[in-house]
Design goal:
alpha/beta, 302 residues, globular
């Protein structure tokens, strides 16, 4: 039997060192990912995605951030993927290293410090945690392989964003190759634990063509008139929360996506209770947030 373990309950259980049981079995999260009937959470609650990990409380896109999301009880994490000069995929949001690492101190003469201009070995030298807080000093920019291994170890699920694919020709194929090598393209991962998204419709279309079994999402807010075009190659439309209405969400739900199921809406970035309840009332299927505990308490409670 599957039940949703509230984040606070899961964290408390981990802290106290015991496993919750129900009717003689181990309690665990319900399968609410793309392989479920609707992808929606138990009891109609939106699925909560930890944006770049629990990034309100730990440095974004680091292993520390996804570990913290796990400790808070969240099984879906979101990340961003870009490529180094020597072809390694790394997990970082900006196309420059300046905001979230100490690259300006380590490599002062290499402005504007673009990810694509540094090798993986050079990026591995950078501190990606001190900017956020002294307790995270020494955190690194993870490679996608390292990140996937940690998500797998944590028994979490992944909303993977291919970032700025126009800067990295062929990144769609390469991302799929790394996912395959890491064991993330088997049936269980593809149907329940993985979604690939991008702001680029062409990128999403390429991923769908290469792996039509994968669940994909387009980041943006197409007009209602254009939604049928997106339904041909994607399963979800993931918009900024300020750009949507209940009628727009209903229009998305009224279409069948690339896998013949009702399309879904996961909105971003929602970090406060009032906005979380507002988009919940609009009928969204998921909420992407830096503060997953705040949103979960607002939409369903702990």
């Amino acid at each position: 039997m599957y039940v949703r373990v509230r984040p606070a309950a899961a964290a408390a259980a981990a802290f106290l060192g015991f496993t919750l049981t129900l009717l003689g079995g181990t309690a665990s999260y319900a399968a609410t990912g793309p392989g479920s009937a609707t992808g929606r959470a138990v009891l109609g609650e939106p699925v909560v995605y930890a944006h770049r990990g629990a990034s309100a409380y730990a440095p974004e896109n680091t292993l520390a951030a996804i570990d913290l999301a796990m400790r808070l009880g969240f099984d879906w994490v979101e990340n961003d993927v870009q490529r180094t000069r020597d072809g390694e995929l790394v997990v970082i949001h900006d196309d420059t290293l300046a905001r979230t690492t100490n690259v300006e101190q380590v490599f002062p003469g290499r402005s504007p410090w673009k990810v694509k201009d540094f090798t993986a070995a050079e990026i591995a030298r950078l501190d990606a945690g001190s900017w956020f807080g002294e307790e995270y000093a020494g955190a690194r920019v993870p490679t996608l392989r390292q990140y996937l291994n940690r998500v797998q170890r944590n028994q979490q699920n992944l909303l993977l964003e291919i970032k700025k694919p126009e800067l990295y020709p062929g990144i769609e194929e390469q991302t799929l190759k790394v996912l395959e090598e890491a064991g993330w393209l088997d049936e269980r991962h593809v149907t329940q634990r993985l979604v690939v998204q991008s702001f680029s419709a062409d990128c999403v279309r390429i991923v769908h063509r290469l792996r039509p079994d994968l669940v994909t999402a387009f980041l943006g807010t197409p007009t209602v008139a254009d939604l049928p075009l997106y339904a041909e190659f994607t399963d979800r439309i993931n918009p900024w929360h300020t750009t949507i209405s209940a009628d727009w969400v209903a229009a998305v739900h009224g279409l069948l996506g690339a896998h013949g199921k009702a399309m879904e809406v996961d909105t971003w970035i929602v970090d406060d209770a009032a906005t979380a309840r507002k988009v919940q009332d609009m009928g969204v299927d998921g909420i992407i947030t830096n503060a997953p505990d705040v949103v979960q308490e607002a939409v369903g409670g702990f």
